[in-house]
C-alpha cells in the first residue's frame, strides 16, 4: 500500500487495487464529413482526440480521480479510416506507478455495409492523477489477470523508462527494465 499523506486526504479504500478489466472502456464514433480530410479519410488529429477521451475514461475508472494527459507514445497509423465507418476504440490501463498510469488504446473500424472490421491504430497514453490544486496524487494499483495483460504490464515499465530516459529524468543506469531487455 502506498503512503497516504495528509495533503491528499485519501483513504485506504480509495487506493484499493483494481483489475485491468475494471478499467476497460469501449467507445464508438461515426466518421462524418466534417471529421475527414480531402481524401475522405478520418483526420489523424480527430482520432487522437477520441483516443484521448477513451483513455482518460479508462484512467479515471482505475483511479477514481481527475487525470491529465502527460504523454502519447508509440502511435501507429496502420490503415486509413474512410468516411462513413464506425470507429471502435478500446482502452485499458496496463500499469500504474506512483501518481501516473499507462493506458493502451486499440482502434479498429467497421464498414457498416459489409460488416468488415479492420485494425487501424494502437497507442499508449500516460496520465497523472491530480488533486484539486493540480498536484500529483497516488494512484490505485491495477492488477493484470491474463497473460496478455501481464505482458502489457511488464512492457509498460520499459516504455516508462524509455520515456523518462529520453526526457532526461533518469540516467541510463537507472533504466533496469531496459537494461534487462537488452542484456546489459
Could you give a quick summary of the protein structure above?
By secondary structure, this protein is of the alpha+beta class. The chain is 25% helix and 32% strand.
List the SSEs and their pairings.
Elements: E1 18-19, E2 25-30, H1 44-63, E3 66-77, E4 86-96, E5 100-110, E6 117-130, E7 142-143, H2 147-166, H3 176-181
Parallel strand pairs: 1-7
Antiparallel strand pairs: 2-4, 3-6, 4-5, 5-6
Task: List the defining traits of the structure above.
single chain, alpha+beta, 184 residues, 5-stranded antiparallel β-sheet, 25% helix, Thiol Ester Dehydrase, Chain A
Structure description:
- The structure is a single chain.
- By secondary structure, this protein is α+β, with helices and mostly antiparallel strands.
- It has helices at residues 44-63, 147-166, 176-181; strands spanning 18-19, 25-30, 66-77, 86-96, 100-110, 117-130, 142-143.
- A 5-stranded antiparallel sheet has the order 2-4-5-6-3. It has a two-stranded parallel sheet with strand order 1-7.
Give Rg in angstroms: 18 Å
Binned, the helix content reads: 25-40%
Count of helical segments? 3
The rough form would be described as globular
Q: Outline the low-pLDDT stretches.
A: 1-11
The biggest beta sheet is recorded as: 5 strands, antiparallel
CATH fold-level name: Thiol Ester Dehydrase, Chain A
Structural class: alpha+beta
Reading side by side through the largest sheet, how are the strands ordered? 2-4-5-6-3
Strand content: 25-35%
Q: Separation of termini?
A: 31 Å
Which oligomeric state applies?
single chain
Number of strands: 7
Mean pLDDT: 90
CATH architecture: Roll
Amino acid at each position: 500500500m502506498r503512503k497516504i499523506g495528509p495533503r491528499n486526504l485519501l483513504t485506504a479504500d480509495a487506493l484499493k487495487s483494481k483489475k485491468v478489466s475494471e478499467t476497460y472502456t469501449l467507445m464508438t464514433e461515426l466518421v462524418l464529413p466534417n471529421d475527414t480530410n480531402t481524401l475522405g479519410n478520418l483526420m489523424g488529429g480527430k482520432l487522437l482526440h477520441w483516443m484521448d477521451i477513451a483513455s482518460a475514461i479508462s484512467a479515471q475508472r482505475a483511479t477514481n480521480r481527475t487525470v491529465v494527459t502527460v504523454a502519447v507514445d508509440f502511435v501507429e497509423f496502420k490503415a486509413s479510416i474512410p468516411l462513413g465507418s464506425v470507429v471502435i476504440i478500446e482502452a485499458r490501463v496496463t500499469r500504474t506507478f506512483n501518481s501516473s498510469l499507462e493506458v493502451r488504446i486499440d482502434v479498429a473500424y467497421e464498414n457498416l455495409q459489409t460488416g468488415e472490421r479492420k485494425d487501424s491504430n494502437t497507442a499508449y497514453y500516460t496520465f497523472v492523477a491530480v488533486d484539486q490544486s493540480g498536484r500529483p496524487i497516488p494512484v490505485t494499483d491495477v492488477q493484470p489477470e491474463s497473460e496478455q495483460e501481464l505482458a502489457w504490464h511488464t512492457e509498460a515499465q520499459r516504455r516508462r523508462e524509455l520515456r523518462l530516459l529520453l526526457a532526461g529524468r533518469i540516467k541510463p543506469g537507472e533504466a533496469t527494465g531496459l537494461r534487462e531487455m537488452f542484456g546489459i
